[in-house]
Amino acid sequence: MLELRPNCECCDRDLPFDSADARICTFECTFCTFCADCVETRLKGVCPNCGGGFAARPIRPAHLLAKYPASTARVLKPEGCAAA
After folding, report:
1. What was the pLDDT predicted at 82?
2. Residue 7 DSSP class
3. What count of Cα atoms within 13 Å lies in the side-chain half-sphere of residue 25?
4. Which string of DSSP letters, residue by residue, matches 25-82?
5. Model confidence over 22-38: pLDDT tens digits?
6. Do 17 and 10 meet the contact criterion of CB atoms below 8 Å apart?
7. How far apart are CA 29 and CA 20, in angstroms?
8. pLDDT class for 1, splitting at 50, 70, 90?
9. What is the arrangement of strands in the sheet containing 22-25, beginning at the earlier edge strand?
10. Does the structure show a pLDDT above 90 at 79?
11. Do 4 and 60 contact (CB within 8 A), yes or no?
């Protein structure tokens, strides 16, 4: 199951489970989560882990969060936020 991380890995911006600005790698090569701004400006649309692209992170329906909660672990790797 996709881990819904609560923040952007580059800039630490909050990305709640229902954020339309959250992006993930199209290859799902990692559990990385980025905001749309970092994907466009810092990463230039290229995943820093595999060189793939990005897509909007799916939104988990609110009524399923009790059974399948979003992650609360914040991950910040600003040193790794450059296009591959």
Report:
1. 79
2. B
3. 18
4. ETT--S---EEHHHHHHTSTT--TTTS--EEEPPPPPGGGTTTSPPP------GGG-S
5. 999 998 777 789 999 99
6. no
7. 21
8. confident
9. 34-35, 22-25, 54-56
10. no
11. yes
